[in-house]
């Protein structure tokens, strides 16, 4: 017995010694999708000993059997594992919704949990699966209260981004874009009335996150330019660890989201023969007789036997394509991290002759010189080449080809030369084959910083940024185009825009026993300059020589230069007590060279408060309420988006009888001052069931005073307008965001995000009365740019006359709805507006094993569009233009009930401006969809590939709408962003529906 006791005691003693000794523990850490996690921290509990996983998720550490390993990674739940007898410990880490998310704010960062502002935050996951050429389009439907609309389907087309509505009339309506701390040039430099997207040269694949500052508390730190909201863009940075190489390559094809049906040759002949008979009598055969007008249109082809039947839409709208190829290299060590990328995009538009090609480079570097000193450089360079086409209001643009008759052949008998001999209007194909319009944009953006930490609590940061945007437009129209009379025409326009920005600020952070304090204070200086040169010439010896240098006569030339600057001082303080009572205040003192000397500076203060109720004792241990925060904010922002010298009286140099002279060109207004917007926001952030359900509810009121307006003045004064501070406007609305984790299992996850927002806009003060601009109206008590039209009343069933409501005012204040066929007897009324009153976005992300699937629906309701081209396209044969097929449902006999008047050629019958051509533009759109498959890692590792994903994406795949035009978002591109005229369509191209196949490769 003693021998046995000694034996077991000895065995136990030896085993204890063995287990007490350190041993090598290794393993692999993966995420919920089975992907390796680099950079996971592994620490032995209650010690300073630790390590990190490498790029492949592998680690190795020495530990004793009784040790506990702690695995932690930002955004994932911490895991603890006791070593025991194991030598291999593999861990799968899952997301932790309770961890604090960090958001970028002006001049700093802040925990989302303690943010008291309204900020919409998007990450690269929300953006990078959408194959589009502009970054704004990737945001569509993703943020409550944010409307993003590309004006039309041209690849370079201008983009409208409206954050909580329109807060100005004549001033800039675009938000301020800031990339890595550098305010971007966002001026449209189009040499025509059709705008271009100023940010088209940026590569969306380089973006790490976007924060949209919506309320005044978040935007007021940018003071004078915060009225329209601020978009903070953060580009991707490197991480310490193994160097990571990522490659993305995709190819896609595209087509128009919608086309409009026009008459074929047989229908055209029927309608116009009848229209001519109604106007001139059935015996007048000037259209159909041999040698008549139809014979002239057909240009020798036999229209009677159907030899010609041209579908001009097929020539105007074509199948497009898109290629997108990019790579990035990132990595670093504990001192230096880097990110380098290159990208190529080639987009052939759906509008014939329209294309874009872009090369881009980005290099980001962050170096830790010492424990107290950091420096960094963010830089990008891009080259963009665009083949442009004419504006919506030019017959050289393809979309106006639909005005041609189907009896017009597109080409002459040789099938090569465009027919311009018998077409009703100029044949746009002449410009495509004998002309060009090329735009080359070179853009360089750099922002360097240095940060010194005096103490753990106090740091100083200086940033120097530079944005250079150089654009060269070259236009040529050869001897066979509409410039044939001058034997060709060419012009060249060079525009150089430069912006310099300097930020210097201190940050002080201090934690006390029960409170936390952060104070930021600094200054900012910004200078922007612009130079423009223009030259034009005619008379070219050959169509192969297409630059102005070859012109026989220089017919025009000019040059100009301008500059403006801002000088600002700012401060912000945030304070929290007991980690649940939150307070924030900021102030900015802005000066701009654009305003009068007496009003050059403006003060823009803001404050916000928050209360984290879920930290109170009565909710702290709740199993239902995970987080609950009340917040409110108030602040004032400004708008300086006017001309550089709007306050000054200007003179222009010109020539009179070959003698130089000066002439006044602008009225002075020394009292011109800042447009100021006051905004109040109250909101609730909530989370339930361990934050499986989270969301936000907000209500805001934005009131803009001292509106900057190009106010018309009597023509007898010798001037057309003057810039003044006139009137007030208010926007208000609710915003609702709901994020849900619907399913989470080992193989399947499903997350959803819904956002809804309402918008009410009202002009609250307009001292000098109504401002009318063709179809639009600015009137006190109405939505800005409301439609102001005669009301269409249909067709008189007895005679086919178009009818209108008189809408004169009765004695009791009601409108007289008597019908009349005399247009001048009808009064115009406010009937709709161009802005949606309800917007929604619904995004779902699903994954099953190695498959991932996501989609976003977007919708807008309450807006209207007026089709200015309707009088030509749907005018019951008033003009010779081809007609939409609904015109076949015209009035023909007494008793017919229809809304299309009798066809009367060259005779007005309902083509006047009225609600006949006004439609609701409500829609729901499947904005984007993505389906991907990640090949199992045990397969790809054989080829030294960490990750290989194959995917399909689609953009604008489905649109549900009752709108009968090309597209409920496409509008006339000849009106500038600050114009009163809004919501007008005029031969406006629809957006592209795009299908893409691609590969993601990580090495």
TrEMBL record:
Residues 413-956 form the TonB-dependent receptor-like beta-barrel domain. It is found in: Cell outer membrane. Its main location: membrane. GO terms for cellular component: cell outer membrane. SUPFAM superfamilies: Carboxypeptidase regulatory domain-like, Porins. Keywords: Cell outer membrane, Membrane, Receptor, TonB box, Transmembrane, Transmembrane beta strand, Transport. It holds the Pfam family Plug. Residues 112-230 form the TonB-dependent receptor plug domain. It is a multi-pass membrane protein. It comes from the Bacteria. Belongs to the TonB-dependent receptor family. This is TonB-dependent receptor. It comes from Aureibaculum algae.
